[in-house]
């Protein structure tokens, strides 16, 4: 498994967690104190979606997207950290992990970035385990 | 791990594979014979993106999106199956698997569909393994 | 100007209004009474985004997307109509208009649907008026 | 009509034109000479989608997205300019116009950026002209 596949997984996971977290926040009694959190979750999910796409397709702008993604994930994590509930704390960790991985990718020298063709495609035998991207 | 998390992973994987496959197709010598494939890969990646979002956020329209996603994944798989190269064959299998899972979800009785709150959020200890959504 | 260009504009307008409306809702004092509205605005913006893409690219699944888009726009409109403020009422009208146009498109016989090549591209002289798609 | 509404329209128009142009390119005989163009059209459509969303919702990261959008629109325009056909030339102009507007927005002092509440929402009477965002 190569680095880009892990990275795409990490970013897509962050997107899904932010989408889910938004719905969780909607159910909380202190909703009016969480407007900044809702806004950042939405922004975070959307930049994750774009960044995962760019990396998966090997875009020349993948590193630029990852740089912006890291910034927004970090802002979202910092907002989530302000709330003591388990879900916000967990979401913060997911966002921070994503931010770190995106930042590392964004600063990588170009030569190491090339995704070997076919690495995104596991051999057929692994097909029933769709998680092993 | 519950069913919806697996399903979100399956759909996001399909999206990433279609995005990557599009770039692979661009490098092939018989590009002009693969226009339908390119078009379907693009449509497939985009409906996967929407469907994963809807399921992750517990949208009331998640099943409708999954129904359309199944239809497009299947069309994309059938086109990919026409080409003998390994990548097209693998992409077809990923799309077919996604189509099956989406169809099963779309036809599930409402009562079984509720995502238990927090299931999208693994306990902190698992945080370093972002694949285990 | 042909019908599909108007339709793409209508759907993109609806997406932008729903995105903006979500931010407006966040600023309102009765936020906790508007959870369903926030959820539907989010779903509506995202299906509009997909549907506009499919129509602009002439996807074979454009009508299927438009059908789902009409359904979600209508649900969003009905929820917005429950609130007497000007913005909710206006957003409802935008969503209803979009729903009507999407439904008409989804039910159109195939022969009338073909977008004449180049219609999306106005002659150069009109270039400074980017709104006249 | 305020500046941000025009900008959202300009960016959404660019997205639609790039989506449409991709389909046009697929029909051209010299497809294999246009791989870079296809890749850039795809990247351009997707960053336009994100940027329009961020601006419409008044995201704190709207200017960052607009900065990246300007860069990608410009790259796409430069590639399109290499081809003499009418559609590529027109698409280049649309992308260049979008790049200019995004760059101006990205460099605007924060104070001028605030979108007056409700500006995205024209009075009801204008509702039948969905272009006047």
Keywords:
homotetramer, 133 residues, mainly alpha, Substrate Binding Domain Of Dnak, Chain:A, Domain 2, 4 helices, 65% helix, 0% strand, disordered C terminus
General description of the model:
The structure is a homotetramer of 133-residue chains. Chain A contains four helices and no strands. With 133 residues, chain A is mainly α. Chain A has one domain: Substrate Binding Domain Of Dnak, Chain:A, Domain 2 (Up-down Bundle). Chain A is elongated and about 45 Å long. The N and C termini of chain A lie close together (8 Å). The C terminus of chain A is likely disordered. Chains in contact: A-B, A-C, A-D, B-C, B-D, C-D. The interface between B and D is small, with 11 and 11 residues.
Rg value of chain A: 16 Å
* Count of beta strands of chain A: 0
Class by helix and strand content of chain A? Answer: mainly alpha
How many domains of chain A, as an integer? 1
Query: Biggest β-sheet of chain A: count, sense, barrel?
Result: none
CATH architecture of chain A: Up-down Bundle
First-residue to last-residue Cα separation of chain A? 8 Å
The helix content of chain A, as a percent range, equals 55-70%
Put simply, the count of helices of chain A is 4
Residue runs with pLDDT of under 50 for 5 or more positions of chain A: 114-133
- Mean pLDDT across every amino acid position of chain A: 86
- Greatest chain-chain contact: A-B, 48 and 48 residues
Q: What is the ordering of alpha helices and beta strands of chain A? A: HHHH
Oligomer: homotetramer
User: Could you say what the CATH topology of chain A is called?
Assistant: Substrate Binding Domain Of Dnak, Chain:A, Domain 2
What characteristic shape of chain A results from the CA principal axes?
elongated
